[in-house]
Write a structure and sequence with these properties.
Layout lengths: L8 E5 L2 H4 L26 E2 L21 H11 L3 E5 L2 H4 L10 H16 L3 E7 L5 H7 L6 H17 L5 E5 L23 E2 L7 H25 L4 E7 L2 E4 L4 H24 L6 H8 L9 H7 L4 E5 L3 E4 L7 E2 L6 E2 L15 H15 L3 E5 L17 H19 L4 E4 L22 E3 L11 E3 L1 H11 L7
Parallel strand pairs: 1-3, 1-14, 3-4, 4-5, 5-7, 7-9, 8-10, 9-13, 13-14
Antiparallel strand pairs: 2-6, 11-12, 15-16
This protein binds 6-O-phosphono-beta-D-galactopyranose.
Amino acid sequence: MSVLRDDFLWGGATAANQLEGAWDVDGKGPSVPDMCTNGSFEHPKRITTTIEPDTLYPSHEAIDHYHHVEEDVDLFAEMGFKCYRFSVNWTRIYPTGEEEEPNEKGLEFYDKLINRLVMHGIEPLVTISHYELPYALVDKYDGWKDRRLVDLYVKYASTLFERYKDKVKYWLTFNEINGGTTSMGDVLSTGLVQGFSGTLFDVKNTQQDRMQALHHQFIASAKVVKLAHEKYPQFKMGNMDCFITTYPYTCNPDDLILNQQAMRHMNWYASDVQVRGAYPAFAKRIWEEEGVELHMEPGDEELLKEGKVDFYTFSYYMSNCVSADPDAPQVEGNIMAGVKNPYLEASDWGWQIDPKGLRWTLNEIYDRYQIPLMVVENGLGAYDEIEPDGTINDDYRIDYLRKHIIQMEEAVKDGVDLMGYTPWGCIDLVSASTGEMAKRYGFIYVEKYDDGTGTLARRKKKSFDWYKKVIATNGEDLV
Ligand code: BGP
C-alpha cells in the first residue's frame, strides 16, 4: 500500500517564459524575461533596455511550446500525469499590463492548453505570475515598487478566474515570492530594473525598495485570494516559495543564531505573511537593521488577514550551510550562495543535492503551518547526451528524483499532509538563472541548443518510462 494519498497529484512544472517562445506572436507584449539574453554558469545573462541586434534572447523561441502544445500535453498524459503546473504569460493577456480589455488571442492559447489537459483528465495548477512581469510596467513604474501594480495584477488575475472558473481549481499567486527579500528577486520577481542594463548580479537596489515592492505583492496576492474565496468557493489558493533550507555549519551558537536569521529572512518572512496573514514578530528587527520603513496603507493589515492561502507550495533543489566564520568554504546556489556542506555532493552547477533535507523541510513547514503542502519544483539540472542509438540514459536524474521521492514518503510517514509533486522542467526548457538550454531537467528531451539552433524535436529520455511507472504505482515502485 502506498503511503501517499490516492489522489496524490503527480505531474510536472513549467513556466510560460521558459518554454512557450512566440514572444511577439498574436499580440503578446514583451515581458522582463524577453529582455534577458542567454548566458551560462561562467557568463551571467544580462537584462537589456532594448532588444539588441545580433544577441540571443532565449525566451523568444524557447522550445516553441506555443506551437507544440498538443504534442507536449499528450506526452505528459502518456506519462500518466495527474496534474500539470504551468504559468500564464501576463503579456499574452495584457500586453503592457494596462489595457482595459484582455487580448482574446492570448486567452485562446490557454483555452487550447487547458482543454487538452482536461481532455486527458490532468488537473491544471496555474501560477498566475511566474517571472513574467510586463516590461512596460518596469519602464513606466519601476516594477512592483509602485503600488499601482496591485490593481493591474488583480485585473489580470480576475480575467483568468472568470475565464477558467469551471476548469481550474488550483492557483498559485506568485512564483517564489520570497526571492523578493534578496537581490536575486530584483529582475525576475519584483522587476526593480527601470532603465537598467547589466547582469542579474549588478542590480543595485535598497532593502527599502525591495521590502516595499514585496509588500505590494503580498497585498496583490491577498486581494486575489480574498476575491477567489468570496466569488469562487471551489478554488484552492496557494503561495509559492523558493525554499532555501540552511543548516548551521557547526554547533557554535553563533552559527545557530545566524542560521535562524537566514531561515527567517529567506523563508519564513514571506510565508508567515501569506499563510498566517500577518508579518511575523521578527520582521520589526529586520526592518530596523536594514533601514526599512514599510509604508502600509489603512486596511492593509485587515487585507493580509483576509487573504490567507489554503495550501503551501514550494520549490526545493538543494540546501546550504550558514557560518559565522567568513573564511568557511563557499558553494553556488539558485537564489543565494552558501557555505559548503562536507556531507553533500553538488550538481554541475554547484547546487548541493540533499534528499534528506527535503524530509526535514517538509516537516518544518508542516509543523509551523498545518496546511496541506505540495512540492511544485524539484529536479536535477544536468547535461544530457543523445547516444548513437538515439537513447538518452539519464540515470543520474532518476537517481536524484528517486531519492527525493523516498524522503517525501518518509515525511508523509512523519505525518505531513502532502498533496502532490510536480518536478521542475518536465520537458527541457530555458534555465531561469543562466538562460541556457544545456541545463536540462526534463523527462522529455528537446532538440534545442545554446546557440539558438535545433529542430525542436521531442524525444523521451530513460526517465520518461521510469516516471510513468512511479506514477502508475503511486510512488511504490521506484526502481
Ligand atoms: C526556480 C524557478 C524556475 C526554474 C528553477 C530551476 O527558482 O522558479 O523558474 O527555472 O528554479 O532553476 P534554473 O532554471 O536556473 O536551473
